[in-house]
Amino acid sequence: MGERSDNPSSEGWRSRSELPEGLFRALDWLKGRLEGPVQIETLADVAGVRPRTLESQFKLYLGTTPLGWVRRLRLVRARQQLLSADATTNVTNVAMATGFTQLGRFATYYRQQFGELPSRTLRTARMEDKAASDLDDEALRLSWRAMTSAYSVGPAACGAAMADVERARELAPQLALPKAIAAWCLSQGAAHNFSRTPQLDRAEAAKLAEETRKLAPYDALALSLCAGALTLTRRLADADRLIERSLAIDPWSPWGWVRRGWLSAYAGDDDGALRELKITLRLMPFEPVRHLIFIGIGCVHFNAGRYERAADWIRDGTAAVPDSFWADRVGVAATALAGARTEARRAARRLLHRDENLTVEIAQRAWPFPPSFMRRLGHGLLLAGVPKS
């Protein structure tokens, strides 16, 4: 991790690609102590830094203060309790159980974060619970089964996911998750050249993402899927707003963090993308997200001109989930630009065997990376023998 600095104005933290160890220790310690009082001095002792340094790290890496972070997590926990309420649950009990002793302030903070009063959340949850008794359980089973296939991001896997969610949408049209999964799969197919009607699929993905946002504005997982769909339909500002909302609702969501990291990569923010993707890796170091983290980190290294490292990360990512061969386009280009032309040509032949219609022009239309990234991608693919058009 390198040496720590107790100078809160130090620029050292800005160049780090992941959270400092002390900040991780503080966050882990907080997760089990959200209900009680939190003193900055105690938290700094846990982190092993001075209080002023810890406050600076929270601001730099998490965009808030230690107490602001605690409040956010307490509100998330309160919302989870309200959404899973039984007949005995009331707003006062939930507020007290999550560390809020002043109900007026609790209601104000809650409304600022979630856009509605806690009493409304409770009423809505009870109405949905009543309606859920009539909801076909099969729709939920199919939706959750589709998640693993959808995140594999390949033609066969996305096809299997779409079959599941189309049936789920027939059984339960009011359910948000299958709509979000469908939006994700359609956008992936259109971007990665395994869709027969890419323009129509992009339009349908954007439509489903908007329907999902209106149907489930507080579902962090559904919002993160929709952000992914909007990203590949080139609506980056809308995607960014959705993923920020998703992480405000669930700050520990790996689905949210992996999308946050990819959005930073598309913006050309290499340091931010590495930091966010490595946070995701700590939250979920296994599939179905791990290979997307590896591929994302590889793309960050490619953007920074670290071609050998880019090829290594992408190679490991696609080896874990071979159906994600779309990422080999960047790996092949990185290998060629690193000077291993013979190896790159062999890899390109293997890729063209799986991605038969691939051309440089198709690859350059796939992602909303910065123009310099896409120019170098095209150059590397040409060097490896991928046809231009």
Account of the 3D structure:
With 389 residues, the protein is mainly α. It folds into four domains: 12-63, Arc Repressor Mutant, subunit A, CATH 1.10.10; 69-132, Homeodomain-like (Arc Repressor Mutant, subunit A, Orthogonal Bundle), CATH 1.10.10.60; 135-251, Tetratricopeptide repeat domain (Serine Threonine Protein Phosphatase 5, Tetratricopeptide repeat, Alpha Horseshoe); 253-389, Serine Threonine Protein Phosphatase 5, Tetratricopeptide repeat, CATH 1.25.40. Helix content is 70%, strand content 0%. The chain has 21 helices and no strands. Helix 14 packs parallel to helix 16 (290-303) and helix 18 (328-337) packs across helix 21 (371-383). It is globular.
Helices and strands, in N-to-C order?
A: HHHHHHHHHHHHHHHHHHHHH
Give the terminus-to-terminus CA distance. 45 Å
Shape: globular
CATH homologous superfamily annotation of the largest domain: Tetratricopeptide repeat domain
Gyration radius from CA atoms, angstroms: 23 Å
Q: What's the CATH architecture of the largest domain? A: Alpha Horseshoe
| Overall number of strands | 0
CATH class of the largest domain: Mainly Alpha
DSSP helix fraction = over 70%
So how many helices?
Answer: 21
What class, by secondary structure content? mainly alpha
Instruction: Report the major sheet.
Output: none
Q: Which strand-content bin applies to the residues? A: under 5%
